[in-house]
């Protein structure tokens, strides 16, 4: 399998790991959701099946952003824990999910089936090789099924961030990730839109964390409307980029 790894020049000072026993989940799966009832009915059983195949003790946390359908009811019926986010946006959803997670490894994934649960096997097999594993659409072996407009915007975004920040990664905006819990607990995050993904990655990198990209096939969402409005959030991405440049270069 082809991997892209970011070498670091300094070691991070990170909190000690959380203790585990037979009743503690080995992995927490955090899923931000807004009106995702139909998709969750398909996704949650798939996650549970994959976890059973891997013999993983798994907790599924659905972070509800104020759904008007039966997202919460469906999630609870299918065995997930529902957490309501207190802060706005995708960044707010991740903060709520991170706070609720109790396992030493935390996976974030979308509710719309664009992130197939079977990929958890790739994450789990490489869990000790990085502080952050990124399911990457743009490394050799990765693919992205998306419209031409979104593909262009995504490519420009990722290349701009990577170039200006001097980070040798190809997919900084992928939301399908596995984190070590001890790493994310230390982060002080300011972004509240989808640009939180870049902020998390840069802060882990600057702290000396190990980051690795794993080839991944991104697929279009199953149903519903995407909540990722890249043009709408362009200003937020720009502000985050400026903050990350100051953090990266100490200015």
Beta-strand proportion: 15-25%
Number of domains: 1
Q: From the alpha-carbon coordinates, what is the Rg to the nearest angstrom?
A: 17 Å
Average of the residue pLDDT scores: 85
Note the quaternary state here.
single chain
Number of strands: 10
Q: Residue share in helices?
A: 25-40%
Please give the CATH architecture: Alpha-Beta Complex
CATH third-level topology:
Spore Coat Polysaccharide Biosynthesis Protein SpsA, Chain A
The spatial strand order of the largest sheet comes to 1-9-6-8-5-2-3-4
Order of helices and strands: EEHEHEHEHEEHEHHEEH
The biggest beta sheet is recorded as: 8 strands, mixed
Distance N terminus to C terminus?
38 Å
| CATH first level | Alpha Beta
């Amino acid at each position: 399998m082809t991997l892209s790894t970011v070498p670091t020049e300094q070691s991070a000072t990170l909190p000690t790991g959380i203790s585990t026993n037979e009743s503690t989940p080995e992995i927490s799966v955090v899923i931000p959701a807004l009106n995702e009832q139909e998709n969750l009915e398909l996704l949650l059983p798939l996650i549970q099946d994959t976890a059973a195949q891997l013999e993983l003790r798994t907790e599924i946390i659905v972070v509800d952003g104020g759904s008007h359908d039966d997202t919460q009811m469906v999630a609870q019926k299918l065995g997930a824990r529902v957490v309501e986010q207190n802060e706005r946006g995708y960044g707010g959803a991740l903060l709520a999910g991170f706070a609720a997670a109790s396992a030493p490894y935390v996976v974030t994934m979308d509710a719309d089936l664009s992130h197939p649960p079977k990929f958890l096997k790739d994450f789990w097999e490489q869990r000790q090789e990085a502080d952050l594993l990124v399911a990457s659409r743009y490394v050799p072996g990765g693919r992205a099924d998306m419209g031409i407009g979104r593909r262009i915007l995504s490519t420009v975004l990722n290349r701009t961030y990577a170039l200006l920040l001097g980070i040798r990664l190809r997919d900084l905006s992928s939301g399908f990730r596995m984190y070590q819990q001890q790493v994310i607990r230390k982060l002080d995050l300011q972004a509240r839109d989808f640009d939180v993904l870049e902020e998390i990655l840069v802060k882990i990198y600057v702290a000396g964390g190990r980051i690795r990209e794993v080839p991944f096939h991104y697929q279009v969402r199953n149903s519903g409307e995407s909540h990722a409005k890249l043009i709408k959030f362009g200003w937020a991405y720009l502000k985050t980029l400026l903050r990350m440049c100051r953090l990266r270069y100490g200015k």
